[in-house]
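Dear support,

I submitted the protein below through the web form. The confirmation email said the job was done, but the results page showed an empty box. After a refresh the structure appeared. I'm attaching both so you can tell me whether what I see now is the final result or a partial one.
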Amino acid sequence: MRNPPDDTAPLNSPPARGRGRGRAVTAATPADSPSPDPSRERECILSGERDVRPHLVRLALSPDGQILPDVRAKAPGRGAWIGVTRVELEAAIKNGKLKGALSRAFKTGEFSIDPELPAKIEFALERNALDRLGLESRSGTVLIGSDRIEQNARQGKLKALYHASDAAEDGNRKLDQAWRIGNDVEGSGLRGLALPVSRTILALALGRENVVHIGLTDRAAAKRLSEALDRWLHFIGPEPSSVSCETASQGASASPQNGAPPIQQASGSTGTRPAVDMTEEFE
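What the results page shows now:
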């Protein structure tokens, strides 16, 4: 369970959860911050732990008896929530724990679990995060370009900082240092988060060219992006299961990776079928 971020502290990356990918060090959250609203909490059917809905992944039962990811929590009917990593989910599928938990949640055993469900969830979460990044870019809350980001960072205006997976270390260090200076926390571990996607994917998601670093100056936008990234990075864990594809949309839908139609991917690999967007499946 996590407290909401301090309104004055930078949001450089998603809050750490469980044993998944953690965040880079940020300014501490005050101990007297209010607790999350219990009405927004759900219980993970596998771990039994409770958390707020934006931190969990909803699974929905389709009309044809398929268990599908509903990462935007918009599909009608019963839903079940999970907050585990991909590795933990794969183990739960293998040992039958997921089937039992879903049978209790949906009060029926008339469903099937696709072995590719973890891959579909991972793709859906990545797509959702890149979609959110594209939306924030179109609303004018995203900064790109090292010089512009550095200037805002030194002025204390930066609320979040992200780097492409293939960004140069010296460029990362320069912007991280500017951010620490702007927040008057020199000597701390505050730094931007290196995302598990390349500059090519970030550029496609934003509809721009050569996006190596990303900064956000609006706190609300930084929080929205942080929540989308949090679920994705927590699910894939410390080591991503695959290399993301190179054809993410311009703020609409990232191109498929695990379980996608054959397309050009970063690693040159191909998949078979895209994850189902539950909002498209049922609406």
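Response: this is the final, complete result; the empty box was a page-load delay. Residues 1-5, 13-34, 241-283 have pLDDT under 50 and may be disordered.
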